[in-house]
């Protein structure tokens, strides 16, 4: 871009599904991803679900020549799984961990342990400041009865706010990741509307890949076929979103997805398809202004819809806070009752039939266990309530700002 | 400021020590704070440790006339305790919760339950964009053997990074809060050096209040006198820091602190002294540029010092992760041994003396308890290790950037 006011930026995004001991043919696939990235020479690579630091180190060693700059984001128990490889120098990084991310006791879903986050990387492409973000939101396990929707909406809102607040001095903003939402879902509409991001699939001049840009497709041998039964073409949950901020414009020239297998191979990179965008970034004479993607009355509707869902989640969390609190109190009462009985037995030693020791201590341990568990859950749901209330309040403020704007 | 390129901004900052049931004369003090704020008519009020939402609502009701805009930040189990009252419209807010904040099992210190955070408020003062931040870092309980230093440094680093990334398009940045660090501590030097903040006490043209701007003083009837024995003048841990970013300059005209009692009263506002600054903000012809407060070789030394301390914390966390993991494994082995013994007893029912049932089940419950506790702690310390590693890595990157700069 030296002397030339345009830049062609090739971006690669993939949810790698690289969970040690659990993901099928992981090492083979990570090698394959590394080989492809090495051959293709993208400008920016945004990867998710690289849970093992060894996999990241292997990729880094292999890709050092063509992507001299990289960063791995650490968070949660297992990690965030996010990493970025870049041809441009990475000047700075910032990790924002979502305040809500599922429940620690839902071990079978495991989202809570991942510390899901958005990782911001500040890269400088000759004359452009690019903060690409790699992120992943809470997974959807059941579309009909989606218990995690409020958490995912809080995450989408925090992501939108994070983008708004950290991108003000950037030239171009880029967001890539597995958002775990369908294109028409309220969370995606929020991300398009509130920070004004554009969807590369919708804006692309040329498109090649799975129909509608789907990234979970029945053709992929690793996808769970039963989950895709209601969607014969597949679903789209991985995105590349972008916006130009200062005196720049961005156009998506081309968008490609893989189609069930890696190019020229017989196995896929992952259970998700990769998304590859070629963006055309151009400096223009005057500042473009921060144009919001959606017309504002529509945006107000989207924020209202999201706020309603967060409110539903808030009431559920309040109910759970109440019932876990009540259970803790009952367990405490049982313990006190037992302590009184034990003291009574000690005071009048020989009085009548003694209480059977085994059942007595079993009951005491049970009460202690329930007390500890219920207290822990009560604290957790108290935090959940606080965060949902905070988000609802922020959304209310955003709605007021939208309504007051001339 | 209409037509006039200058703005005088009066800022009030106070750690209110308003913990329900625990803080002495809380309601009386909150009323007093409200009355004073109402009379004095500051432009911006940054409060910490307002743990009760009822106290916030009372203040809001009382101050609605002179501070029409306010925000209460919710986080953690108890809350963040942060709130902001403003004469200027609050356009947007963002809460960043620190990734590390003490240990949940240190109940007597309680920091973990507060969800300590930095709250960003985007306010617009006629022609100036002001993102004031209210924040509180982890408390220091023992200066000689400060087990929380690495956590506080991670928080200081995250705060510095948060300011750098969210203030790029602002005119003036303002940070007020209880930073729980002395002025010469490495965390404060980091906050002055890395985002280039200036300390209102050091820069003030006129100063009035406790010597050296101390905010925990022996004169205050609520402070714990034994903690202040090594510091006969008191200590300074509450700050107002600022910087001008775009084409603005900021000067601190006047800085005042309360001196053990509220002005004209016989009791203090809190166990901390209030800090009040009058800032003179002036638009100048050309952009001031993001000048870093400290010379860069000194800044590199500060980042290196902070990184060394984080490294010490990392090794301690790794040791704790190892020992809790080992304890969990031992408890599991004990449980398996018991299960084998129980199965053996069931198989050869009449063989020899039966194992005493009571001790057997007590031991089993003990093993289950230890297993659960040790696993929980192991998960917690794994997260701690990840976050300390991530911060160390970010500091390494910052040092490289500082060294590479021409």
UniProtKB/TrEMBL annotation, chains A, B:
Q: Which Gene3D superfamilies does the record cross-reference, listed alphabetically?
A: Endonuclease/exonuclease/phosphatase (3.60.10.10)
Which PANTHER family has this protein been placed in? PHOSPHODIESTERASE, PUTATIVE-RELATED (PTHR16320:SF24), SPHINGOMYELINASE FAMILY MEMBER (PTHR16320)
For this protein, the record's InterPro entries field holds: Endo/exonu/phosph_ase_sf, Endo/exonuclease/phosphatase, Sph/SMPD2-like
Under which name does UniProt file this protein? sphingomyelin phosphodiesterase
Recorded name of the encoding gene: Smpd2
Q: Which regions span the lipid bilayer?
A: 328-352, 358-380
* Enzyme Commission number(s) of this protein: 3.1.4.12
Q: In which pathway does it act?
A: Sphingolipid metabolism; Lipid metabolism; sphingolipid metabolism
Claim: Manganese is one of the keywords in the record: no
Any GO BP annotation: sphingolipid metabolic process
Class of the enzyme per the UniProt entry, highest EC level: hydrolase
Domain annotation Endonuclease/exonuclease/phosphatase: ranges: 15-272
Give compartment(s): Membrane
Sorted UniProt keywords? Hydrolase, Lipid metabolism, Magnesium, Membrane, Metal-binding, Sphingolipid metabolism, Transmembrane, Transmembrane helix
Q: How does it sit in the membrane?
A: Multi-pass membrane protein
Question: Gene Ontology cellular component?
Answer: membrane
A Pfam family of the record is Exo_endo_phos
């Amino acid at each position: 871009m030296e002397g030339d006011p345009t830049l062609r930026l090739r971006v690669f995004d993939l949810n790698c599904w690289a969970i040690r001991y659990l993901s099928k043919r992981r090492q083979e696939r990570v090698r394959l991803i590394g080989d492809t990235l090495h051959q293709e020479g993208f400008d920016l690579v945004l990867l998710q679900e690289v849970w093992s630091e060894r996999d990241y180190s292997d990729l880094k060693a292999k890709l050092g020549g063509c992507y001299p700059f990289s960063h791995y984001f650490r968070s949660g128990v297992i990690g965030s799984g996010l990493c970025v490889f870049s041809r441009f120098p990475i000047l700075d990084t910032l990790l924002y961990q979502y305040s809500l991310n599922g429940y620690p006791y839902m071990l079978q879903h495991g989202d809570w342990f991942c510390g899901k986050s958005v990782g911001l990387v500040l890269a400088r492409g000759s004359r452009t400041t690019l903060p690409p973000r790699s992120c992943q939101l809470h997974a959807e396990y059941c579309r009909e009865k989606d218990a995690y929707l409020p958490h995912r909406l809080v995450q989408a809102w925090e992501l939108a706010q994070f983008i708004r607040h950290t991108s003000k001095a950037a030239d171009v903003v880029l967001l890539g990741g597995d958002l775990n939402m369908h294109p028409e879902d309220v969370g995606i509409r929020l991300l398009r509307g509130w920070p004004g991001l554009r969807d590369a699939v919708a804006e692309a001049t040329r498109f090649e890949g799975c129909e509608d840009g789907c990234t979970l497709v029945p053709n992929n041998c690793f996808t769970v076929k039963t989950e895709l039964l209601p969607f014969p073409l597949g679903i789209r949950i991985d995105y590349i979103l972008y916006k130009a901020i200062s005196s720049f414009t961005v156009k998506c020239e081309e968008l490609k997805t893989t189609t069930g297998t890696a190019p020229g191979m017989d196995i896929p990179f992952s259970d998700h398809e990769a998304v590859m965008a070629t963006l055309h970034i151009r400096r223009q004479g005057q500042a473009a202004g921060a144009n919001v993607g959606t017309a504002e009355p529509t945006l107000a509707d989207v924020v209202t819809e999201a706020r309603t869902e967060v409110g539903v989640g808030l009431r559920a969390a309040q109910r759970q806070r109440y019932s876990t609190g009540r259970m803790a109190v009952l367990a405490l009462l049982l313990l006190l009752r037992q302590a009184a009985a034990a003291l009574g037995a000690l005071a009048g030693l020989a009085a009548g039939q003694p209480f059977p020791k085994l059942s007595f201590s079993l009951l005491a341990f049970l009460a202690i266990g329930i007390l500890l568990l219920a207290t822990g859950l009560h604290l957790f749901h108290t935090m959940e309530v606080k965060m949902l209330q905070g988000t609802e309040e922020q959304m209310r403020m955003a709605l007021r700002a939208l309504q007051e704007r001339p």
